[in-house]
Amino acid sequence: MKELKLSNIKYLVIHCSATKANQPFSVESLVTTGKEKFGQCSYHYYITRKGFVFKLLPLSVQGVHVSGYNSCSVGICYEGGYDANGHPADTRTETQRTAMLELLKDLKTFFPTARIVGHCELPGVAKSCPCFIPSKEYASL
Ligand SMILES: [Zn+2]
Asked: Which of 45, 80, 93, 106 shows the greatest Cβ crowding within 10 Å of its Cβ?
């Protein structure tokens, strides 16, 4: 795994797991999928539908979650992002939203100048992930 220099962190990038909200996607599945695809866990944090926050990677190592920005970002993934029909949707539960807000507030105390963005907001990304616009929702943080 590559080193992530904390002084380089410019973005807190929000993702969804791109799984149906009515089909649980466990933290173990997330880790396994990352290891199979990228040889390591992709994200630093995972927020489940029940609002549990798992820290999966130390901030001192790079995630593998967004092409071109892994060396300057923290990756945060929430469980869901697709509705029951498989269409992209903001499927966050109330507890998930609360957990995400608390996590972002904490991270902003350590990285006050970091911008909170969604995967889809970064240049050259043609994905709906995370199915809402974090820079708008968290503009006040
Ligand atoms: Zn993503």
From this structure: 80
Centre of ligand 1 from the C-alpha of residue 32, in Å: 17
CA of residue 135 to ligand 1 center, whole Å: 15
Q: Give the Cα separation of 35 and 69 in Å (integer).
A: 19
Predicted confidence (pLDDT) per residue in 79-129, tens digit = 999 999 999 999 999 999 999 999 999 999 999 999 999 999 999 898 999
Which CATH architecture is the domain 6-137 placed in?
3-Layer(aba) Sandwich (3.40)
For 25, counting Cβ atoms within 10 Å of its Cβ (0-12 exposed, 13-18 middle, 19+ buried), the class is buried
Q: How far does the centroid of ligand 1 lie from the alpha carbon of residue 117, in Å?
A: 11
pTM of model > 0.90: yes
Distance 139 CA to ligand 1 centre (A): 19
CA 20 to centroid of ligand 1, rounded, Å: 15
With H, G, I as helix, E, B as strand and everything else as coil, classify residue 70: helix
